[in-house]
Amino acid sequence: MAGICCGVVGEGDTPAPLEPTTRPSRRRSLDILPLKYIADMAVPPSDGSRKRPKLDLRDRDNVVQNCDESTGHKVVKKEAKVEIHDNISETKNVTVADASEVEDSPKFGVTSVCGRRRDMEDSVSVRPSFTQGFHYFGVFDGHGCSHVATMCKERLHEIVNEEIDSARENLEWKLTMENGFARMDDEVNRRSQSNQTFTCRCELQTPHCDAVGSTAVVAIVTPDKLVVSNCGDSRAVLCRKGVAIPLSSDHKPDRPDELLRVQSKGGRVIYWDGPRVLGVLAMSRAIGDNYLKPYVISEPEVTVTERTEEDECLILASDGLWDVVSNETACGVVRMCLKAQKPPSPPGSPGSDVAADGSDRACSDASILLTKLALARHSSDNVSVVVVDLRRDQRQSSNSN
Amino acid sequence: MLCKQNLETPTIKAMLNTYHASKLPSNQCGSSLVQTIDAPLPLVWSLIRRFEYPQGYKLFVKKCTLLDGNGGIGSVREVMVTSGLPAGVSVERLDKLDDDKHVFKFSIIGGDHRLVNYSSTITLHQEEEEYGGKTVAIESYAVDVPAGSTVDDTCSFANTIIACNLRSLAKITEEMVCKANQIKV
């Protein structure tokens, strides 16, 4: 009880809440709605409201573990653990480097867990204000090993930034993103040819890494557009007025146009534990996987969507989520989490911690809940989820400032 | 289904007839793949013959553990396969290892994958000088056609994996030769 009260008080400190509420009703809504929804979605409900602080503690511990993994010290987990990416340090660095460029970035939440796989091969990249007024979110699901997904996490936003800069006057999103993905693929393949050292274990095992690759689903959020570029079978879904709108289409080898494209290049799609290119790879597009070119290509499909007042959230996730959770269910879960919390309030000033820290409790809760749902439904893969709050009142507040 | 290679030299013909010409039962399929390698035969053989260390040249190997034996005939290894492939583990037995004739034969005896009753024979040959003097690796295999699959699909899958491994073998050994030559200069 005391912990919950402290939490409520903390939230009360947020400057100028748009909708003042009494403490009891706020606490009641926070406690009741998520739990009810959890029960409905067949996720084991937490024992009671007092348990919530513990969840926070576990999450903080897992952040450390995640850091260990990212440095190459892989730990085989006996249990699936939820890890939260905390981007405070990154965004604060941005603030320090160039405060004038920091604009109000959308609230977001990130989880990325090993799940029931032996190894963690997913990566997530969140770059608020990665270039003027644009925000970058990416999910990369590696296969064969983790280093291609890691390279995408570390480099793709930089490459895209360069492409945007060079196209400054005539920004054409499809061409820009296609160039960015092609350069990323070239970089991956050049590296696998040159025997450069990777921090992952495959350096010790396989001298050549032609057979490593990754999906890449990238969303760029601008003041008026959502630009989604997808290569592989991760996915981006927009939740607009309660309706799930896919912004990407999975590159499965048996998708009719992908099947034709592979065949036209002289390849085959063979049903071997599901449809696979040459019976080997369960997706028809990927970054890397040089050994399967020209059948498996790195060209992204790009969608540009105008933002509207009805936009609620954007979800990016790997197939560890989408294989067991439908678009509609995922949107429902996120909407419930967003509603359970008051609308985000405007930041006090551009340099404040609230503004600098793009992560958000409701979005984090949503990404955690989606991850737990995937694991509860026996997803057998790594699960990575990014939830971005697109609600308009945030933008209106930004405009009024 | 042999690839277009020069397989008409007397030595290669004899080896083909001896090691790669088995007749297959009706429920099985098989094929042979050939890779020419511009590297000394002893070097190439040194990578192939290490039953306990297939990742020395093979792709798709995450880890290999000997379950029985010490790498000689009769040894059994457990190969953990990299993610993304339609297999998790493959348990394999070494059936033949001939260091004089350069013959390596293994069978898959378990694991979680769809390759049942799979056996593979790899032989190395030195081309005569008049034909280029290079090393020729030939791998032929036989495997059950799984229920619901076709002969074409099964061979296509197996051929893809074997071709990748043979290309990798060529790449690695040829690079070893390049590095050795650079040291001499």
UniProtKB/TrEMBL annotation, chain A:
One function term, GO molecular function aspect: metal ion binding
Entry similarity comment: Belongs to the PP2C family.
UniProt signal peptide: none
Listed Gene3D superfamilies: PPM-type phosphatase domain
Protein name: protein-serine/threonine phosphatase
Gene that produces this protein: LOC100776356
Superkingdom to which the source organism belongs: Eukaryota
Domain PPM-type phosphatase: 107-390
Annotated InterPro entries: PP2C, PP2C_BS, PPM-type-like_dom_sf, PPM-type_phosphatase-like_dom
The entry's keywords: Hydrolase, Magnesium, Manganese, Metal-binding, Protein phosphatase
Cellular component, GO annotation: nucleus
EC number: 3.1.3.16
UniProt keyword Hydrolase present: yes
Top EC class of this enzyme: hydrolase
CDD domains associated with the record: PP2Cc
Automatic annotation (TrEMBL), chain B:
Alphabetized Pfam families for the sequence: Polyketide_cyc2
Gene Ontology BP terms: abscisic acid-activated signaling pathway
Name of the protein described by the UniProt record: Abscisic acid receptor PYL6
Family, similarity comment: Belongs to the PYR/PYL/RCAR abscisic acid intracellular receptor family.
Keywords: Abscisic acid signaling pathway, Cell membrane, Cytoplasm, Membrane, Nucleus, Protein phosphatase inhibitor, Receptor
The UniProt record lists the keyword NADP: no
InterPro entries: Plant_def-hormone_signal, Polyketide_cyclase/dehydratase, START-like_dom_sf
A single cellular component GO annotation: cytoplasm
Major localization listed first in the record, in broad terms: membrane
Localization in the cell: Cell membrane; Cytoplasm; Nucleus
MF annotations from Gene Ontology: abscisic acid binding; protein phosphatase inhibitor activity; signaling receptor activity
Species of origin: Glycine soja
